[in-house]
Each structure stands twice: as structure tokens, then as C-alpha cells.
Design brief:
Elements: E1 2-3, H1 14-24, E2 28-31, H2 35-47, E3 52-56, H3 60-63, H4 68-80, E4 87-94, H5 101-121, E5 125-130, H6 133-140, E6 148-151, H7 157-165, E7 169-173, H8 180-188, E8 194-197, H9 216-227, H10 231-246
Parallel strand pairs: 1-2, 2-3, 3-4, 4-5, 5-6, 6-7, 7-8
Length: 248
């Protein structure tokens, strides 16, 4: 469900992409990653009620170099729109793109600001964690957050198991159709703690093609194949998981 329809990649034919999504999906979660994206996510949700739902956050790669005033602006933005969003995020820690210790420390400090916000408002938290999954989980566990999704999860099986043991969720992207690591995660983890997503326009199941929300069915098909269940059953369970997390 997680995607970025607000990105400029969809400027040319956004409404066509949304209509294709309507034919395949019950709902779409558009995740803001900064002040501008948060505003656009809200606009899309207001333009497509009961189909597109917004989350608001701040991307960790930007957090590593952001001014404190900008972080405060996003916090105010979230607080003023808290009744119009279904989760806080995406936000988190990305040590793949940020390697200097100072930048990583700033990422974690910023992540904790938004984790605290999710706890305060009792909102779900959408976590972006890359090469920092275990550390991000340790940070999350310092707060009483009702529901947490580690979006586009690519970490270890051991950390994934810890996430699930806490009652949290991981989200499997469409790249599961060709990623052996993601296939292995799906095989070993309970479907009751798995969501599906495209992270479009990224991580397309069709190499060389821009991803879009409707393509999430490719992930569902692959999950059904791995779990040896019918596609409809995989779709039902992952959809129920998403509805529970986001209150849809």
C-alpha cells in the first residue's frame, strides 16, 4: 500500500495511475517524506477520499543534514493535521546512504522526535530502516507506540522475528518477485505480520519500468506462491493487516 504518488515521477499521468490502482486495490497509503511531500500527500487524500490515505513524516537521509527549524516545522505540520492522517512516517534511520557518525546520530535523534510523537498521539509509525534495522527497533522500543510498520523491510531474519515478536509488522515490497532475500523472509515469517507495498515509483517488479500502486498484485501473487496458498487468501490476510494498522 505504501507509495509516493505525490512524487514528480507521476506528474505526467498521475490520475491515470490512480485509476489503474482503483481497479486493483481497496486503498493506497501515500507517505510524505518532508514538508512539501506531506502537503501533497494531504492534497491527494482530500482529492480521493476513502481511497488515498496520507501519512506524514521526514526521510532519514534528509534528517542527517536538516536544520532544527525544519524538523520543528514538520512536527508542527503533523500536529496540525493529526486528524487527517493515518500514521506518522515514513521516518527512521538509513545508514546505507549516511555513513558519517555525526549524520547517523542526527538521524537517530530526529527519528526519536517522530517516534515520540507517534507515542504521544497514539498513532501508527511507518519506519524506514536500511542497514540500521536493529538499531531502529531498539529506538522504537523506548516508546509506547501502538502499531509499527517497518516499511520495505530488507534486514535480517533475526531482527524481523524480534519485530514480529513485539507485535509489529514488516512490509514486503514488489521486488520480492526477484529478490531471494525477500522471498526467504516471506517463507520464514508469519503472514499475519506482513503487509505488501510498492514504494512506487521505486522497486518495480518489472525491471526498467516505473513502479505504480497497481503492481502490488505482483507481490501478493509471489507471496501466495511462496506460502503455497491461493492468491485470494494472501490478498485477504495482507489487506486485513493493513486495515488493522492504519485503521481503514
Amino acid at each position: 500500500m505504501h507509495c509516493h504518488l505525490d512524487f514528480k515521477d507521476f506528474n505526467r499521468n498521475r490520475e491515470e495511475v490512480i485509476e489503474r490502482a482503483r481497479k486493483k486495490l481497496d486503498a493506497v497509503i501515500d507517505s510524505g517524506v518532508g514538508p512539501g511531500g506531506n502537503r501533497r500527500a494531504l492534497e491527494l487524500a482530500s482529492q480521493h477520499p476513502d481511497f488515498i490515505y496520507a501519512t506524514m513524516g521526514f526521510h532519514p537521509t534528509d534528517a542527517s543534514k536538516a536544520r532544527r527549524e525544519l524538523i520543528e516545522e514538520v512536527v508542527s505540520q503533523i500536529e496540525s493535521s493529526i486528524d487527517r492522517i493515518v500514521a506518522i512516517g515514513e521516518t527512521g534511520m538509513d545508514f546505507h546512504h549516511t555513513r558519517d557518525p555525526g549524520g547517523r546520530k542526527k538521524q537517530e535523534d530526529t527519528f526519536r522526535v517522530f517516534a515520540g510523537l507517534a507515542a504521544e498521539y497514539e498513532m501508527p509509525l511507518v519506519v524506514h530502516a536500511r542497514d540500521a534495522e536493529e538499531r531502529a527497533l531498539e529506538a522504537v522500543l523506548d516508546y509506547s507506540i501502538p502499531l509499527v510498520v517497518f516499511h520495505c523491510y530488507s534486514g535480517s531474519h533475526e531482527t524481523a522475528r524480534r519485530i514480529i515478536d513485539e507485535g509489529y509488522y514488516i512490509s514486503v515490497p514488489t521486488m520480492v518477485v526477484f529478490s531471494e532475500h525477500h522471498m526467504d523472509l516471506v517463507e520464514k515469517l508469519p503472514l499475519e505480520n506482513i503487509l505488501t507495498e510498492t514504494d512506487s515509483p521505486y522497486l518495480s517488479p518489472f525491471r526498467g519500468k516505473r513502479n505504480e500502486p497497481a503492481f502490488v498484485e505482483e507481490a501478493v501473487k509471489k507471496i501466495a506462491e511462496i506460502k503455497d496458498i491461493k492468491v485470494g487468501e494472501a490478498d485477504r490476510i495482507t489487506t486485513e493487516n493493513a486495515r488493522k494498522v492504519f485503521g481503514l
